Amino acid sequence: MFTHLKNIDTAFKHIRQFSFFLILGNVVTMCFCIYKSSQLIHQAESRVHILYNGKVLEAIATDRKNNLPVELRDHIKTFHQYFFDLSPDDKAIQANVSKALYLADESAKRQYDNLQESGYYNNLISANISQDINIDSTELRGKQFPYTFICYATEKLVRSSGTVYRKLVTQGEVRDLQNQTDNNPHGFLIQRWQILANRDTTIQNQ
Asked: What is the pLDDT of residue 86?
């Protein structure tokens, strides 16, 4: 009789262990299924369908953090192009600089006022000088906002007597405004901006 009871007790322990591992296995399987389902839902939500010329195209939406360096560089590049791409026309200069000032704080306005007071823009207009800028490189520093940057660029000033190339170096910080507008599509703002160097490097006479 004792042997029979012992066998029943052993069988009950085996059943209990089997039940425990079965429940554990079910829990693990359910957690894995929930994880995979969430992953598939996230991937499905990241797919965007665009209608272009009557055709449905599929695009993938990505996290902004993945494109943050690209967006920061483009914001910095756009600001410098608006600020330094100038034609010998007062209204055109004001229009371009106004666009640039949407992308930066009062530090850019101070630089504009200084150039205006020194007669820089009047010289461009009176001498019929057009000025273009090419961004050579933009160095980003930091791991969080506000990001600091140093921008290296080349200015090309074209006049009737020849062409002048200048080396331009600026620095500043970029902070996140948390909202985007038509005038500021990236939603960033350049602050503490200053011109470190703006000197002639090459002069080509006609």
From this structure: 97
pLDDT tens-digit series, residues 47-103: 555 554 555 555 555 556 778 999 999 999 999 999 999 999 999 999 999 999 999
| Shared domain check, 125 and 68 | yes
The DSSP-derived string for the chain is -HHHHHHHHHHHHHHHHHHHHHHHHHHHHHHHHHHHHHHHHHHHHHEEEEEETTEEEEEE---HHHHHHHHHHHHHHHHHHHHH-B-S-HHHHHHHHHHHHTTB-HHHHHHHHHHHHTTHHHHHHHTT-EEEEEEEEEEEE-SSSSEEEEEEEEEEEEETTEEEEEEEEEEEEEEE-S---SS-TT-EEEEEEEEEEEEEEEEEE-
Note the pTM of the prediction, 2 decimals.
0.72
Same-domain check for residues 192 and 108: yes
**102 in the same domain as 18:** no
